[in-house]
Each structure stands twice: as structure tokens, then as C-alpha cells.
Amino acid sequence: MYNKNLKFLNYSNLDVSLFILIVSTLGSFMQISGASWDITSHLLNQPDSFFTPSHAMLYTGIGLIAISAGVGSYLLRRKKIKQYNSISLSFKLLIIGSFLSLIAGPLDYLWHQSFGLDGLLSPTHITLATGMLINSFAVFIGLYAVMNNISYRKTLAKFFLIPCLCSLWFTSIWYVFILVLPFSESDFFNFNLDTYSATLIASIFLPLINSIMFLCSSKVFNNTFGYASIIVSLLVLVNTLSTILPTGDILSPLIPWYFVSILGASLLADILLNSNFIRNYTKQFKNNKLIASSIIGSIFYFFNYPMIIWTYGTFLNTDLGSLNAVLPTFLNTIVTVTLITVPVGAVMGLVGYLIFSKIENSLNALIKGRNATIMKSDH
After folding, report:
1. Within 10 Å of residue 210's Cβ, how many Cβ atoms?
2. Which of the chain's termini has less CB crowding within 10 Å, N or C?
């Protein structure tokens, strides 16, 4: 005989789990926005202090995720959600990611005490970035599981998946930036990669991320037109607010072009991939995916304005001695860089489609592995 008290207990645990994931989504969104803003502040040579608005945003985000991970750890220890594989995995990843993010703070302080100011790529910074990436992926896994398997909270999970995917996308981009931006030379260490390696890594992984995340954003919402474009729009907005606008008039003149070019390309890819009219007309959904992946991959250089300019500008031996040189460098090299990045990005976009096809199967298996159990508690 089915126990109604057990039903109430399951509902309660799922509600708590969803609340944890929502708080973690907000934390993930804040931490990557704050990190991007903080790096821009350093480029502007603003006074370096722990008590800055960007640090407050970054560490508030980390704190929200750490609290969420603590509650998730309690549920795991009490075996309250053991039957929900994806949610359990999400909380386990949050614990790991939060641990890495939290220890990165004091380790970074000790690093500064020993070696003074450091660059972007340092052991403590890569520890922090790894924790942030794990956290953003963990939240995505959990919310996606809720949306697919728990109908009475489907709309709420669906809403928060938008900033969740934006955070995962932006965090993945910054993880590559840590490796390829020439900001990692200090008095004691020079962690900068050579210009050829940095440019190669950027040219491979940035269009791959664009392609995979665009396909993922479409898949998550059952290839419904508009959702992928909304996520791209939010990402463009966050990048603008955290990276471009803080520079004042130095990089802002290209904001209208930035919005129109990126949103125009993403809208075209969204139409090809997710428009019912196009899908029904072509009858070859696979070809639509290939074309959309190629489009979104081909614009990776423009998509990652302005940070990517440092990588390619250094590769082309241009003078990037100050932030004021970035915009002239972009305009003076736009033809050459476009001829390089568009075809390379298009090809890597196609590779992204092939990779996502494999990821998609694993993701579906993970999310739906205990579908019957979850749905039983939903009635």
C-alpha cells in the first residue's frame, strides 16, 4: 500500500533540492559576472583591494553555492535523494566545486604574500576557475533533471535554466581565456603561453564551446525556437556589462555592432535549427544542425569581443601595450583575422556538432536513468 507520508517526504525533498539549485544558479551567475568584471578592473589599473564591488559579487556567488552545497551534503548524508541519480550527482559536484572555490581564496592570499601580484594564469586562479566550472555544470545537470522528470516544478526549473546555461557558457569561455590571454607574467613567474599555442587553443576551443553550448541550449528546451537566442542575448548582455561598459569610451563604441552581429548570427542559427517551418521544409534536421553549428562556430572571434583581441593581436605582432590600443587593433586587423577565424571556426563548429551528438546520448541516459522512480513520486 502506497504511503502518503512518503509522498509528502518526497515532495519536500524535491522542493528543497530545487531551491538549492535555484540559489546555486544565482550564485553561479554572480561568480562568473564578478570574475569577468574583476579582470576588467585589473586591466584598467584600478586599485587592487579585496573590498571591491567585483570581488563582492564574485565571493557572494561563491558563498551562495557553498551554502547550497552544504544543504545538499546534508540531504546526501541523510539519503533523502538517493533515488534521484542526476540530482545526487549535481550535489556531489557542487560539493567538489565549492571546495575548490573556497580553498582558492586563502591559497591565493598566501600566493600573493609569497610572490606579490600574480597573473591571470596561476595555480590558485586555475583552482578557482575549475571550481567555478564544476559548479556551473553541476547546477545545469540538476535543473535539467528537474525540468525533465518533475512536472509540478517544470516551469520554474525551465526559467532558471536560462541563466544557468548562460553561466555555464560564459564560465567555459573564461576557462579558455585563462590559458590564452597574455596576462600571466609577473615578477616571479611567466605563465603566458607562446603566441602560436595560445592562438591555436583559442581557435579550437572557443568555436567548439559556442557550437556545443548553442546545440545544448536548443536541446534542453526541446528545440523550441527562441530559447537559444535568449541565452545568447543574456550572455552578450553580461559580457557587455562586465567587460565592455566598465572601460567607458575605450571599448564601448562597438557595442551596437557587437549586439547586431552576434544576435543576428545567433537568430539565423536559431531559425535554421529550431524553426518548425524550416525543419518541416528541409526534412533533414541533421543538415540544419550542421549549418547552425557552422554559423555559431564561425563567429567566435566576434562573439568573444573584446578579450580575444589580445590573443590574436599578440599573434599578429601588434602593439597592445595599453587598453587604449585594443579597439584600433581590432579595426586594423579585422580583415586579416576574419579571413582566418571564420573558416576555422566553421569547421570547428561542425566538430562541435559531432562531439555534442555523443554528449547528448550520455546526457539523456543520465537524466532519464531513474525517470520511472521520479515520476512515481510526482503523482
Report:
1. 30
2. N
The domain boundary, picked from 157, 188, 219, lies at: 188
Query: With contact defined as beta carbons under 8 Å apart, do 39 and 178 qualify?
Result: no
Q: Count of CB atoms within 10 A of residue 196's CB?
A: 9
Tens-place pLDDT, residues 171-203: 999 999 999 999 988 878 889 999 999 999 999
Residue 49 has pLDDT above 90, yes or no: no
Report which of 377, 375, 379 is spatially closest to residue 149, judged by C-alpha positions: 375
The number of domains in the chain is 2
Q: Which cell numbers in the block locate residue 348? A: 570547428
Domain containing residue 295: 193-368
> How far apart (Å, rounded) are the C-alpha atoms in residues 73 and 245?
39
| The pLDDT value given to residue 234 | 98
Write out the DSSP string of 60-118.
HHHHHHHHHHHHHHHHHHTTSSTT-HHHHHHHHHHHHHHHHHHHHHHHHHHHHHHH-S-
Judged against a pLDDT cut of 80, whether residue 104 lies above it is answered with yes
